[in-house]
């Protein structure tokens, strides 16, 4: 297993897993489409470490970028990738009353 450090997390990549699969498994926010290095939508900044491509990517990448869909690390790596955050849903009590919770201002007679 290889250690992967991201912007706000750390995880171990499982045997046979691409970086994209590891990022998905650990609930990281990463865009993707083709999963084969063609489209470039998974383009990610590589902070440190080295990767090996399983297939030669066709999408353009800068010197400090990788396509996690088609590469595996060659030792520990550090990536710019954030955990996906789900908005917390408010829990409403049984006695919740929407009218008493909202301020509609003074009541005005309708004309």
Automatic annotation (TrEMBL):
GO terms for molecular function: 2 iron, 2 sulfur cluster binding. Pfam families: Fer2 (PF00111). It comes from the Bacteria. InterPro entries: 2Fe-2S_ferredoxin-like_sf, 2Fe-2S_ferredoxin-type, 2Fe2S_fd_BS, Beta-grasp_dom_sf. Residues 1-85 form the 2Fe-2S ferredoxin-type domain. NCBIfam families: PRK10713.1. This is 2Fe-2S iron-sulfur cluster binding protein. The lineage of its organism: Bacteria, Pseudomonadati, Pseudomonadota, Betaproteobacteria, Burkholderiales.
